[in-house]
């Protein structure tokens, strides 16, 4: 496949000839890897990331931190506890934090974690840090981070739209303090300010003022990972005020962290078990996690499967029947494309609610899912905050992906049950799961 044809290239989505029965080693979590990189870069001593995800989003994060002076060494781990899966396990990144400095240029690609988590880090650097990215990154909301950083003492040049491109003129330190933000368009605004908060002179108090707040598990992930490196964080859940988070200033420890598998990227494989009435085992599924993908155990059980979590991992089994679901996905928005794909193959209608903010994700996911499923013969309508999906017999055709990794994996799920589905630009899965096509055909025994 010539690289300049990658966007228009069509990948024949494999059709399942029977029930799948496979063990799938799912690479590391994007959200955990990128938080771990940021926290390691802000720490006062070296740290380790073992089995990090290596995908476009995490390599962009690593490259951006390196551009600001952080050393990230590729190492082969000697720790037997980190050895295991066949996906490069045992390899690690050793992060050596240094004085952050500009001038530097950061390419955010279309990574929400990079475009939101790094401007606060840049405010702590000494020198100008320029941020740019894919065309879509100019459209994704960043105003919550930009406005808040200005209130906290940063100097930022942008074009006044509250979005990329922009330059943060770091002065080596930031006052910090109290700030109000409306994070209804992205939880990443809150996570971004909290992650760098311990390094602000006064720490940070973030008060969310909007009416809704998506992706709460991702904010819990931020808080958990901050606490694990020694930060003191007060949260609504620890007895604080609703919608207020406080981070006390202080040094961060270096951590030796083995990254969990990405449970949102496990979704298409579990969906394969569900829609084919088969069985998929995902090794190393954590017993306790803040990843939103853990909610798939409940959601896909309601849609017709059963699961068992053992010390080895998660075993998920389809019953042969796939049911519709009425569910609020506000906490787990990134699971919506995969759930919509399964819902289009179900024996009853579904209503997916609480995900209006998906219109500002990698693409407008509500519009994209509606159009692409309907073009295969489906009956999906957009609502103010989600989708109504009435299953109908589907036919083959091209499933467009709009540079959205989760559109590509959603199309692949449909292709298991519907012959002659072709996924346009399956290579877009490289954002978080470069191995997707191989893992998918491997799961099917091809
Ligand atoms: O903090 C994170 O790692 C993420 C938070 C969520 O963002 P939104 O709150 O913008 O949906 C999620 O959708 C994204 O995939 C990853
Ligand atoms: C919304 C997503 O990504 P991002 O981190 O770019 O917001 C996603 O991965 O589904």
Key terms for this structure?
446 residues, alpha/beta, UDP-n-acetylglucosamine1-carboxyvinyl-transferase, Chain, 4-stranded mixed β-sheet, 12 helices, 23 strands, binds shikimate-3-phosphate, binds phosphoenolpyruvate, amino-acid biosynthesis, cytoplasm, EPSP_synthase
Mean of residue pLDDT values: 95
pLDDT < 50 stretches: 79-89
User: How far is the first residue's CA from the last residue's CA?
Assistant: 20 Å
CATH superfamily of the largest domain: Enolpyruvate transferase domain
What is the strand content?
15-25%
Strand elements, count: 23
- How many separate helices? 12
CATH architecture of the largest domain: Alpha-beta prism
Read across the widest sheet, the strand sequence of neighbours is 2-15-17-16
What share of residues is helical?
Answer: 25-40%
Using only C-alpha atoms, the radius of gyration works out to 21 Å
Would you state the CATH class of the largest domain?
Alpha Beta
Shape: globular
Major β-sheet profile: 4 strands, mixed
List the bound ligands: shikimate-3-phosphate, phosphoenolpyruvate
CATH overall fold name of the largest domain:
UDP-n-acetylglucosamine1-carboxyvinyl-transferase, Chain
Count of discrete domains: 2
The computed structural class is alpha/beta
Enzyme class: transferase
Pfam family, one: EPSP_synthase
Domain Enolpyruvate transferase: 17-438
Pathway: Metabolic intermediate biosynthesis; chorismate biosynthesis; chorismate from D-erythrose 4-phosphate and phosphoenolpyruvate: step 6/7
